[in-house]
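Batch manifest, entry 17 of 40.
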Amino acid sequence: DDFGGTMAAKVQSLQDCAAAAEEIRKSADNSIVCSGEILRDLLEAEISADPADIQALEEAVNEFAKLHNQMATQTEVLTAIKNAVLSGTSEVMGPLKQHFVHRLDSAPLGEPPTSINDFREVLKRFKPSEQDEDEIELCTTGASETFKCPITAMTINEPISSSVCKHSFEKSAILQALKKHKDIKCPVIGCPAKITRQDLREDLAFNRRLAKHKKEQQTQMSDDEDDAEVVE
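Output type: structure tokens
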């Protein structure tokens, strides 16, 4: 029996195992909280993150969440067995390890930690959803997307987007506008949203579309030059 011989020894072993599982659960939860704080620090410092690093962090947090659930369940099962031993119930007669494994297998899956919800909320600022990929509403004039900044009226070179209304701007231009005021009305005509410095973020989906647009423009210019040479 892995939980000791005498009743006192069994109770102490079960209590120690439950305490160890609870410490691991707390450590996993703290790791999730710290991961969320890392993302918030990146946002506040306006530091662009490598998508691969964000993906790796998300995968690690998901593993921490699984570990949290496993340890929470183990703590609950170990505590229940300890209480059964103390009460002298016949249901825990025999090797306690067997009771532990049986109860653990039949135990319901625990609720995810609340910290994972906070992390995922911040993660949305870095990882666009499928809807974000499909929406063509950034910096729009009419029904088609334009890649011109509504402030400079020039093609955007260093984009940054509002998490409030999803419109994108030249980073230096919107930051300059926000130097004078705590918040400003979105520069896009007809947009009622108010924007603060904290609302600005990197929009990976828009960045990809902008890069594709610039590449298409270069290809078109090259084709036009080739056509002109043929005419000559």
